[in-house]
Task: inverse folding
């Protein structure tokens, strides 16, 4: 059995149960086209009367949209009574399919799930074949609202008594996503407020700076942030209630007081422990136990060769040269006497820790040590006793003698946790209330740096015209105009640049060659876009896309079919590219007051662009 | 919810519920034990924590986590039982529902064209139009239940009162469709369309445009460069206003609503969304008149869900004829069996 049902079988099955007309949602355009091809190859044909009905509708539409007449799929649709409807088609063709569907001439339409919102025609049945949809290179499960959007197309008002959502499996389908989507409540929506540069310029044009915060506060974004803040405020109220038993005691801020005291106490205790490790006598002595020093150990004397800390033992160690030449290790603690006598030692990094000549010399010396030698007077610094530490704590803090000390000690951990929670909540509420405004301010600073705004947030001369560019990548476009990149430009080159900025699809395709003038300008644009990257995401700036528009505008004799043959892009994509270029160019055209030459060039480009297929729709 | 709280909550869940939660989130989650499952769930969703939480809460609402049907019905290759009766008996663990599942005949019953009768608007449609007289209205109802009627009726009344109406849609394609449709209904001289570079019949009382174009008009109006009669504007209809949640374009809807002139009424038409009350509250808080919300889940044409097996066999998808609301797992036994069989065949194709 095939992994999913064959399109022809699918439609036949639906027909046999009287479930047509149907919209079949498929994963990709490719799947829609494959389904159409399957029909083209099959021997299916609908009755001649219906074929004629389709032809009649199409002929009627050709008057308004001439491009339908030469559409390659026209005859197939007429013969088999099904059609594909996706973003790869021209709008006029999609309109034709929608009209056919509305008039009930078609049995089924194969559409992509991605464009469910654009499918504005109902059917008796909707067929769902997958549970995930491709969103920016990744497949994500359909949301409940998306499933309902798909299923919502089923059942035509006034034409059907019931509508059907039919699920047919394909590999990777997850049944639970669909059933959840059909039975569940749609997701809540969230604001997606972003502060764009044109928004700032237009706001500041119409309103003084001190009103802006109030305007931003009217956004749905702030409304939702406020309701989140409200939840936090409620939480804060309960926290305050919980804090009540921990109000002011002997000192007003006893939590902080106790915290500092506790910290100090622990620090001191820590210090005592470390010092207790080595006796004060030993510590005082250690600095004299240098190589060459003569010391006394019980029942013997020796010369120190080195002092070290053994890895295995915690105590400091010394290596001694005993009279007679023996080299021994012993803990520094066993040293009983330190004499006021040293010898020259040339140290070495390995046993016996001094050069052989030196060792011979020292052995000699060790054997001849005088019987009595003066001991070194070593001052022992007395460590403060623990009682003294407590005394200092007593001096610095009132806590040790405070009557509420036991209560403080008991409550401190809980109270501190509560107070931290309160602080965190207060910070979060603050951030929720001012976040939008801060975002506005940081973007305003960028505009000030770039010279669109004065330091007092008035529009500069540049800002006055830059606010008319209200499209994506507006900063790049205004900066290009400021850099005079477009002075004396040809309409087709301007259109090429605009389309490479407008196009945000990275699907590959083979495209015509680009002219050297456009290529070098595009390099300049790319350079500028890179330098603006910290402020604005750079567009893709594809050279092959630029070349498509350049060809279409530069060569008035190029037909639509001719343009399509130049590339592997789908018709619908080329149309959308040019339509978007048109939008960008018309924005440039609004600058006719300040940049007459450029606006004129844009309007010439628009005129050249609007021909053939692009003239069919407003 | 903090990570610790979530972890604790996850720990308390039965493992079967965790597996359902992990579906689609963790690759090969069925290989993991409970401890590792919880860890993986926490690890895999740092950015979509709210989604995980809401799914978890939804799962916790369900009374008993039904045993994973598919896993249970999957069995080594062999002759598959075909009679639904025997299939049901093979699952003693499955709770027997009180009502018998619907059969195909009653599922397909009633297909046909309703008798033509004069159009009578639903109560909610009347309600929406009536409330537009005094304030803004949000209509959040399922797709295809007659939002357009509200728009048309409201437009008719506004034009009769000599006011301008602006109708916005998110897509140029939809604008064009509406332009054709409205021209047919109101007459071509009454309808105009505005695009970035073209103004067709811009003096008409009903203007159709994309939301971006309206936003730009409002910008110009705010800075004093006015070229459309905003002072006579009586009604702004925003179709598909669930686009306010669109990551790239949603901000345009917000700006348009914020800057919409106070004397113009707003009519927001939206597909079903989860929190239309929030949007209504927002509008009430920023607009001069209170906003009336109309929401319901009833469909004008009832919807049924079916399952079509690749061999052409059709079965109802749910036990009941209509789609149950808010309760998962009430799948039709036949659909369940067919889907299990499908998974069986696609996951381990027979070798011959």
Result:
């Amino acid at each position: 059995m095939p992994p999913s049902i064959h399109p022809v079988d699918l439609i036949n099955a639906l027909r046999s149960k009287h479930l047509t007309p149907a919209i079949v949602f498929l994963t990709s355009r490719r799947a829609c086209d494959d389904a159409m091809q399957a029909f083209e190859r099959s021997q299916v044909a609908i009755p001649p009367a219906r074929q004629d009905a389709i032809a009649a509708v199409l002929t009627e539409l050709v008057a308004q949209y001439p491009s339908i007449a030469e559409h390659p799929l026209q005859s197939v649709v007429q013969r088999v009574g099904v059609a594909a409807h996706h973003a790869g088609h021209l709008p006029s063709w999609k309109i034709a399919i929608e009209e056919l569907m509305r008039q009930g001439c078609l049995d089924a339409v194969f559409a992509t799930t991605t464009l469910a919102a654009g499918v504005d025609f109902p059917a008796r049945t909707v067929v769902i074949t997958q549970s995930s949809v491709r969103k920016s290179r990744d497949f994500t499960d359909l949301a409940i609202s998306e499933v309902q959007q798909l299923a919502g197309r089923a059942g035509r008002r006034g034409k059907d008594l019931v509508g059907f959502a039919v699920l047919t499996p394909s590999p990777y389908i997850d049944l639970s996503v669909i059933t959840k989507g059909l039975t569940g409540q749609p997701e809540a929506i969230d604001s997606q407020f972003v502060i764009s540069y044109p928004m700032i310029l237009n706001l500041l044009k119409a309103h003084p700076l001190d009103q802006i915060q109030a305007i931003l506060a009217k956004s749905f974004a702030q409304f939702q942030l406020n309701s989140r803040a409200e939840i936090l405020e409620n939480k804060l109220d309960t926290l305050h209630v919980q804090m009540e038993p921990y109000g002011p005691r002997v000192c007003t801020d006893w939590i902080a007081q106790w915290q500092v005291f506790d910290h100090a106490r622990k620090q001191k205790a820590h210090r005592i422990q470390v010092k207790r490790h080595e006796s004060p006598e030993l510590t005082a002595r250690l600095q004299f136990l240098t190589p060459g020093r003569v010391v006394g150990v019980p029942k013997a004397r020796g010369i120190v060769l080195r002092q070290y800390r053994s890895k295995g033992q915690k105590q400091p160690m010394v290596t001694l040269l005993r009279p007679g030449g023996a080299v021994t290790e012993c803990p520094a603690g066993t040293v009983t006497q330190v004499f006021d006598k040293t010898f020259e030692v040339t140290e070495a990094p390995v046993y016996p820790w001094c050069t052989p000549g030196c060792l011979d010399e020292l052995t000699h010396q060790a054997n001849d040590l005088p019987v009595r030698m003066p001991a070194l007077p070593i001052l022992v610094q007395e460590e403060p006793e623990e009682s003294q530490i407590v005394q200092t704590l007593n001096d610095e803090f009132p806590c040790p003698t405070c009557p509420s000390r036991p209560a403080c000690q008991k409550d401190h951990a809980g109270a501190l946790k509560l107070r931290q929670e309160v602080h965190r909540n207060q910070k979060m509420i603050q951030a929720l209330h001012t976040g939008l405004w801060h975002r506005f301010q940081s973007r305003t600073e960028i505009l000030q740096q770039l010279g669109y705004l004065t330091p007092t947030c008035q529009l500069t001369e540049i800002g006055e015209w830059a606010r008319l560019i209200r499209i994506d990548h507006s900063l790049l476009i205004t900066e290009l105009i400021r850099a005079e990149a477009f002075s004396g430009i040809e309409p087709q080159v301007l259109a090429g640049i605009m389309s490479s900025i407008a196009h945000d699809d990275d699907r590959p395709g083979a495209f015509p060659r680009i002219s050297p003038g456009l290529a070098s300008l595009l390099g300049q644009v790319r350079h500028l876009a890179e330098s603006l990257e910290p402020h604005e995401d750079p567009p893709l700036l594809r050279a092959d896309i630029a070349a498509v528009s350049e060809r279409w505008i530069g060569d008035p004799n190029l037909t639509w079919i001719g343009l399509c043959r130049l590339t592997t892009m789908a018709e619908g994509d080329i149309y959308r590219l040019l339509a978007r270029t048109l939008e960008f160019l018309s924005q440039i055209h609004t600058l006719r007051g300040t940049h007459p030459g450029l606006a004129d060039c844009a309007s010439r480009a628009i005129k050249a662009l609007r021909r053939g297929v692009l003239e069919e729709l407003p | 919810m903090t990570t610790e709280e979530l972890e604790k909550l996850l720990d308390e869940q039965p493992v079967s519920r965790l597996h359902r939660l992990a579906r689609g989130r963790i690759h090969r989650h069925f290989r993991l034990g409970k401890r590792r499952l919880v860890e993986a769930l926490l690890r895999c969703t740092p950015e979509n924590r709210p989604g995980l939480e809401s799914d978890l809460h939804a799962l916790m609402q369900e009374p008993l986590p039904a045993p994973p049907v598919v896993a249970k019905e999957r069995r080594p290759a062999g002759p598959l039982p075909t009679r639904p009766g025997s299939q049901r008996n093979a699952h003693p663990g499955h709770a027997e529902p009180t009502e018998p599942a619907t059969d195909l005949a009653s599922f397909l019953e009633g297909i046909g064209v309703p008798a033509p009768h004069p159009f009578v608007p639903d109560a909610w449609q009347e309600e929406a139009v009536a409330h537009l007289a005094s304030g803004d209205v949000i209509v959040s109802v399922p797709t295809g239940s007659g939002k357009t009627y509200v728009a048309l009726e409201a437009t008719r009344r506004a034009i009769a009162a000599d006011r301008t109406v602006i109708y916005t849609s998110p897509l140029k394609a939809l604008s064009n469709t509406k332009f054709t449709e409205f021209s047919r209904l109101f007459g071509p001289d009454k309808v105009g369309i505005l695009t970035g570079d073209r103004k067709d019949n811009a003096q008409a009382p009903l203007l159709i445009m994309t939301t971006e174009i309206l936003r730009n008009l409002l910008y110009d109006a705010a800075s004093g460069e006015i070229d459309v009669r905003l002072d006579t504007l009586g009604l702004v209809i925003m179709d598909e206003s669930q686009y306010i949640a669109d990551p790239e374009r949603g901000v345009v809807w917000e700006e348009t609503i914020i800057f919409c002139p106070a004397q113009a009424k707003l009519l927001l038409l939206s597909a079903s969304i989860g929190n239309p009350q929030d949007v209504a509250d927002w509008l009430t808080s920023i607009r001069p008149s209170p906003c009336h919300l109309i929401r319901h889940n009833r469909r004008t044409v009832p919807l049924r869900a079916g399952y079509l097996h690749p061999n052409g066999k059709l079965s109802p998808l749910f036990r009941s004829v209509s789609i149950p609301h808010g309760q998962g797992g009430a799948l039709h036994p036949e659909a369940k069996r067919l889907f299990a069989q499908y998974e069986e065949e696609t996951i381990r194709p027979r070798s011959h």
About this structure: Residues 191-248+413-467 of chain A form one domain. The radius of gyration of chain A is 43 Å. Residues 214 and 437 of chain A are 9 Å apart (CA to CA).
